[in-house]
């Protein structure tokens, strides 16, 4: 049995027959599960920093300068420009402080996915994916789709 913790205190657990995900505080998913025999592929991808926050921070700084230039004698205008500049600097700081992430996803044959952001720990994610693939290889194949056989009555 192998375990992997995600960034938001979520956990992925490998059992003998399933991959179970219990979401953390910031996750959209509370619980997800997939049988090993249904997993069709594994994807580990790098998530770059969100450039959107840096772009909005830059736009906000120019907007703050514009508000300050349009209303230089008004205290309300200067306070508004300072507020916009502070929010813009926070957005830009978020871009520089937030690290790159690694995202692990398991795709199933039914089209659903189980995934979690695992931070910058790509080697730990690779090991968990290998454990899942090894466990899937060790599954005993079933000859029939149903767990029992339909023998003719007679």
Characteristics of this structure?
154 residues; alpha+beta; PH-domain like; four-stranded antiparallel sheet; 38% helix; 26% strand
Which shape, going by the Cα principal axes?
elongated
Helix content: 25-40%
What is the CATH homologous superfamily assignment of the largest domain? Pleckstrin-homology domain (PH domain)/Phosphotyrosine-binding domain (PTB)
CATH top level class name of the largest domain? Mainly Beta
Beginning-to-end CA distance, first to last residue:
46 Å
- Total helix count? 3
CATH architecture of the largest domain: Roll
The averaged pLDDT comes out at: 80
Strand order of the largest sheet: 1-2-3-4
Q: Summarize the main sheet.
A: 4 strands, antiparallel
Structure summary, number of beta strands: 7
Structural class: alpha+beta
**Helix-strand sequence:** EEEEEHHEEH
Low-confidence segments, given as residue ranges, are none
Q: Which value, in Å, is the CA radius of gyration?
A: 25 Å
Strand content: 25-35%
CATH topology-level fold name of the largest domain: PH-domain like
Number of domains: 2
């Amino acid at each position: 049995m192998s375990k992997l913790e995600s960034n938001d205190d979520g956990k992925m657990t490998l059992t003998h027959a399933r991959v179970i995900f219990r979401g953390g505080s910031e996750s959209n998913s509370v619980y997800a599960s997939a049988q090993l025999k249904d997993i069709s592929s594994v994807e580990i991808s790098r998530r770059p920093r969100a450039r959107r926050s840096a772009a909005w921070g830059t736009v906000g700084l120019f907007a703050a300068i514009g508000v300050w230039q349009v209303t230089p004698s008004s205290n309300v205008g200067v306070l508004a420009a300072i507020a916009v500049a502070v929010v813009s600097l926070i957005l830009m700081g978020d871009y520089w402080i937030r690290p790159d992430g690694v995202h692990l996803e398991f795709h199933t044959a039914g089209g659903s996915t189980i995934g979690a952001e695992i931070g910058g720990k790509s080697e730990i994610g690779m090991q968990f994916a290998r454990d899942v693939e090894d466990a899937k290889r060790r599954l005993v194949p079933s000859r029939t789709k149903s767990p029992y056989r339909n023998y003719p009555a007679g």
